[in-house]
Amino acid sequence: MLKTGLLGSPLGKSLSPRIFRAFSGLPGEKFSYALKEVRPAGLGQALAEIKSAGWRGFNVTLPLKERIIPFLSKTEKPAAAIGAVNAVLIKDGELEGFNTDAVALARALKEAKAAVKGRTCVIWGAGGAARAAAWTLAAKGAAEILIHNRSYAGARALAAHFAKQFPRVKFRAGKFLAPAPARATVFVNATPLGMYRPLPKALKVPDLAAGLYCDFAYAAGGTPFLKGRPGKKIDG
Question: Which of 32, 88, 154, 209 is deepest in the core (most CB within 10 A)?
Answer without folding.
Answer: 88
